[in-house]
Amino acid sequence: MTSQAGKPGETGADALCDTLLANDVDVCFANPGTSEMHFVAALDRKQQMRCVLGLFEGVVTGAADGYARMAGKPAATLLHTGPGLANALANMHNARRAHTPMVNVVGDHASYHLPYDAPLTSDIESLARPMSGFVRRIGSAADVSPATAEAIAAASRAPGAVTTLILPADHAWGAAPQVAPAKAQLRAPALPDPDRVSAVAKALKNGKKTVIVMSGTALRAGALATAQGIADATGATLKAQQSNGRMERGAGRVAVDRVPYPVDQAIAALKGFEQIVLVGAKWPVIFFGYPGKPSSPVPEGCETFVLADPSDDLPAALDALASEVGAGTAKPVAAALPDPATGALNAQSLAVAIGRHLPEDAIVCDEAVTTGRDFFRFTAGSAAHDWLQVTGGAIGGGLPLATGAAIACPGRKVVNLQADGSAMYTNQALWTMAREKLDVCVVIFANRKYQILLGELKGVGAGEPGLNASRMLNLDDPAIDFVKLAESMGVEAARADTAEGFADLFARAMKTEGPFLIEALI
């Protein structure tokens, strides 16, 4: 059986594009294949849609993640069948952990072709479901618009979700009804629960040592000032969740530390607390299980209170709590910038230079892994900026995050703090930065090893690395030349091996538009 394609402007693919645009989804990160060619043709007819090509599907979904975190609305992605989706899953996982709104469109074989089990046939639903909050296979060309609106609504519902639409090729080329595009039924975040607010207020007045752990929109500047006022009025301590989708930091804003990643540091950071209050945050857990160590850094017997879930209006919940405890809005304490560093290039001298030269309104996309763990204290006094993390632990998120953030926020400098090992997972993002002429400075921390895994080898009690272990954890034979790699993709690049050299390069990059990569040899 075969099916006839509808005329241009009347296809299911047109309906999909029209519905995305009618719901203010106007950027599509794409890596298409044969099944998606009618969608590609429809995009040619919809010039309002910005189409951004990624040379690997993990770049596509990672860029959609960075875009949505900064734009506050979903982007669309276009992926090719099950294998294309499989390549995209790691950064969909990171986006899911960040509560990022995203609408993935996965093309599939024509519905009548599926029984023939062609080479790219796969169970797309089963691949998508673990990384998606919503999965729907489109049933016909007439179903395209309502299905798309439903996916946008699910993606946009607080706190945000990754959604996946499966579009069979015959429904993309089939004739669609000529009706107005469906509108997504959006829903506001839930209002604060008065009972929770009262319970937390009572707990904060009982004299017990309390830590308030926050994430999501509680880490925006206004909400942080409210939270600090609550802490000042009650003696509570503020912490951010270990990994967060977006945090507003820098001069004029309240400085809050994260729960540390290393198990011993995390346990020490929460030692002695008798109560923990969660504001849009998960109960703290250790990244991995370690022999003889707990799975959570929270002390035994520490009582847990939930002020608000991630789907709630977190700033409103903090406002309600502040009113209940009689707190005012705190004025941030000015943090001094560190003195310039000289000599060897290491984690501290890198952090000092970055902290001193970050421009106003910069966006930092952090996949520094081990090198960047202590960067917060050196950047608390930097010009006001946003800090985005790779939230799910799936490496390869940093470069794409920076790509998407730059597309969402033209006019703002984007800085990607990037470990060298994880950069190789999605280095194709450099090409997209060059093609789109994005204002991104990539800093590669080139220690030429998987330093995090060398630490974890000891952390799990597996001992010192021998010959085979070293060969799996070192990247120096041969060493990757990131300057040549960047230049081959159209990105200007330079190398630094001293604190002074790096500071000069970074300061210049902050004042120069366009993509630039610094390979920092540490």
UniProtKB/TrEMBL annotation:
GO terms for molecular function: acetolactate synthase activity; flavin adenine dinucleotide binding; thiamine pyrophosphate binding. Residues 11-115 form the Thiamine pyrophosphate enzyme N-terminal TPP-binding domain. Pfam families: TPP_enzyme_C, TPP_enzyme_N. It comes from Primorskyibacter flagellatus. Belongs to the TPP enzyme family. One of its GO terms (biological process) is small molecule metabolic process. This is Acetolactate synthase large subunit. The keyword S-adenosyl-L-methionine does not apply. Keywords: Thiamine pyrophosphate. Residues 383-519 form the Thiamine pyrophosphate enzyme TPP-binding domain. The lineage of its organism: Bacteria, Pseudomonadati, Pseudomonadota, Alphaproteobacteria, Rhodobacterales.
